[in-house]
Amino acid sequence: MTTTTPATLTRSTEQLRRRAHDALRTCGVDTTTLPGADRIDVRTPLTGGTVATLAAIGPGEVEAAIEQAHQAFLAWRSVPAPVRGQLVKRLGELLSEHKEHLADLIGVEVGKIASEALGEVQEMIDICDYAVGLSRQLEGRTMPSERPGHRLMETWHPLGVVAVISAFNFPAAVWAWNTAVALVCGDTVVWKPSEKTPLVALASAALLQRAARELHAPEHLNTVVVTDATGAAPLIDSPLVPLVSATGSERLGAQIAPRIAARFGRAILELGGNNAAVVTPSADLDLAVRGIVFAAAGTAGQRCTTLRRLIVHESVTDEVVTRVAAAYRGLQVGDPFEAGTLVGPLFGAAAHQAVQDALTEAVAAGGTLVAGGERVDVGHDDAYYVRPALVTMPAQADVVQRETFGPVLYVLTYRELDDAIALHNGVPQGLSSAIFTQDQREAEVFLSAEGSDCGIVNVNIGTSGAEIGGAFGGEKTTGGGRESGSDAWRAYMRRATNTVNYSRELPLAQGVSFA
Ligand code: UN1
């Protein structure tokens, strides 16, 4: 692809490095004190330059961290849940206080625009609020016993050490969803952030540590392990880790799920998405276009919930394509710290190559590149900025079946809603989905059992930007896990069914007599 719109980035790697280190120090992190010998360079996608060098740890140290977390669990599980909630309350306050510092780190490490980086931190604050309330609502049921003088009930107990494995694109919020809930549930956490984005992880963990110290909570409730896949092996394999909550690619899920299953561990998997929106003839197109552009081009297409497929009724396809293409041409691509920028960098050379390969494959399959796809030169060879791409496709193609983690939106057309739903569900993944319509029948069909097969099904909003109050996750190769709100907390606890006999008899269930 050709290069376009030279817009030299005035910010230097050195300025970004200083910005990151200031934020880290303010959050209480000393980056020189991590153990281990292997060094990891943290690069900013803004320039491609190195902003920090950290020590990586190996499997032995990860195992030690799990052991410490297990010891912490043995103390933490006996602290009353509402008291555990107080720790999460303090964490939420500290996150609010340091909102801008954390957002700065996300900006430097991931390349999110300021508003989205602040939004990610807000999501962390929101889940803390949610978890504080939850700490007084970890309720079990009481069911009628079939036997006289008996009570049948369920109690929920802390589970143990939770391994949280998070991806580069939400380097802090996904940890917070898991950890705020895990902590009030009485669990402890060992967190492996992407080794490419460990800085905001260290800062967030330092804030939690400060909260724990202030409230005299046990040590080692949450430990960050900066390590690679080899180092992280004990998180997958250790019997001291009853739950692994992992966010990443479908490939990652396929590697770790059988290992966790082999030891009868639990997994919450949040893997690939290939999210689609159906646009029907009755859709409010002003609203639909705004929703589509944010969902497809926001975060430079690097959310698991990013809109990747548009399934448009043939009567409105031309108009939708024209309007989305026009909106794409108006998007400011470049320095994410610059006011007005809506699309920051891709996360490195591999991400850029994946986008270019997908576009080549789409065109070879008969697709037409209507807008975008070209690299934007900002004066740094190792920084990869692209204009969001819009591609019309004559029919289904292999490339449309895959998640390409960048701003590529494929457009397919349909005639009957049933065909749209078949196209929609005809991919391996099942995370998020949307329909734009003003026809209640169409909306209800999409929401029904015969409609979208995804974990998130929206009407008249895009596929991304879910609130923390709902359960978050998806079906099929997305992995089936649920995190965040609603009753997702139950996965972080173990259930005990209790039958209590308060009579003087011993009636057996099912009327069995044994005498
Ligand atoms: C992710 O990309 O892994 O719904 C998480 C959203 C955000 C979370 C995305 N609340 O887009």
Word description of this protein:
It is a single chain. This protein is 37% helix and 21% strand. It is an alpha/beta fold and 515 residues long. The protein folds into two domains: 13-271 and 479-495, Aldehyde Dehydrogenase, Chain A, domain 1 (3-Layer(aba) Sandwich); 275-469, Aldehyde Dehydrogenase, Chain A, domain 2 (3-Layer(aba) Sandwich). The N and C termini lie far apart (84 Å). Residues 123, 169-170, 174, 247, 303-305, 464-466 line the site of 2-aminohexanedioic acid (UN1). It is an enzyme of class 1 (oxidoreductase).
| CATH homologous superfamily designation of the largest domain | Aldehyde Dehydrogenase, Chain A, domain 1
Q: What is the count of helical runs?
A: 15
In spatial order, strands of the major sheet run 13-16-17-12-11-19-20
Mean pLDDT: 96
Features:
21% strand; Aldehyde Dehydrogenase, Chain A, domain 1; EC 1.2.1.3; NAD; oxidoreductase; binds 2-aminohexanedioic acid; alpha/beta; 515 residues; five-stranded parallel β-sheet; 2 domains; globular; 15 helices; Ald_DH_N
What is the structure about, briefly put?
By secondary structure, this protein is an alpha/beta fold. The protein folds into two domains: 13-271 and 479-495, Aldehyde Dehydrogenase, Chain A, domain 1 (3-Layer(aba) Sandwich), CATH 3.40.605; 275-469, Aldehyde Dehydrogenase, Chain A, domain 2 (3-Layer(aba) Sandwich), CATH 3.40.309. Helices cover 37% and strands 21% of the residues.
